[in-house]
């Protein structure tokens, strides 16, 4: 049986630690090989009750006594076996996908170091790396290092929460000591295509979901600036106090980019904090060809940017960037004396824990730093440009097929391509309730069949007045045109069969 004390070099030269870790590396390498094989299954699908009941020697139940080393290795293998290969070339399901080898190595080293990001004292190299990378991101956005601040957070939802938290503190610093009772009825604005994390943040911060005002979008999903200003004026008329606008740079469903300059004009006119949720679209700033889509982001007061999306960094890796030095710390600091002593032997500006709403903070920076070293900015740019070209290719292929219909009859703005599959029987029903009801059922059925067979994964959803449609996402470096062609053929095969 395996005891933790056994996983150490023993006196009789039987180094179980080395044996165990080499076996694990072997398991990982085999998994990676299968992941990149387009002919392999994306997953071996089982329903929740099957996993909970146990499968072929793989049991999720915990026992009071230690398992054997052999069983632990089997468990490692089976955990990967029954999971989803998000690095598979035909995995198009979410915005975060792909398997980067340099990033993977960075994650291994991070786990081995197993330290915390709250002080330079215990993470000298990692906190220094974070400062370097944040500076790089400020420069790319168009801010100066001396005027900006930031921190890496567990994800885009938390980064958006930070943006709203700091925006409220900037206008109403008394919130920190007196709470919401000291404030007027504050409201914030986000497009109707904005991420749901904005409402979640409002609920968490005590602002209230009903005080998040959704602004109308145009037909492509972009916030309409005139509608924003109308909503701001209406809120003031009602006695509410507008304080923040959340613009979106790369919406989750349509991949839309709000007109940032026009929104910034409204924010400056009414003295509102402007936060840009560029969790998905922020990576485009690295592309000289496509960065114009985020023109105006330099006027934002805060920005969310997730390198774990378009840039392909392994989860999790998200940054909240604030265009005012010292504000993040003033908002969040509690000056815990057992961590943040001012009389340490080094520059305590590198003790970042008092900027964070967390205490323990995972090291998310090393894998990004290592990937940037390996790829350079040019490598990221080339990767992102290729995703954009794949989206255009997919759009053009679908446009020529009479059994597919695009949600937007225009070239995609980002790597999101939204479409319906039309079975032969619906070709002659061009409109009406029957057509809508049938279309709504088709996407879930096709996805279910692909998932059960493990051939591909792609998401679907309804949106506004549009019934269920497929949303193709390109953010996986393993995906090629042949994988795009395969997905189309697979949908046609399953569609005809249904």
TrEMBL record:
Keywords: Decarboxylase, Lyase, Pyridoxal phosphate. GO terms for cellular component: cytoplasm; presynaptic active zone. InterPro entries: PyrdxlP-dep_de-COase (IPR002129), PyrdxlP-dep_Trfase (IPR015424), PyrdxlP-dep_Trfase_major (IPR015421), Pyridoxal-P_BS (IPR021115). Homodimer. The gene is LOC100355864. CDD domains: DOPA_deC_like. This is Glutamate decarboxylase 1. Its cofactor is pyridoxal 5'-phosphate. It comes from Oryctolagus cuniculus (Rabbit). PANTHER family: GLUTAMATE DECARBOXYLASE 1, GLUTAMATE DECARBOXYLASE-RELATED.
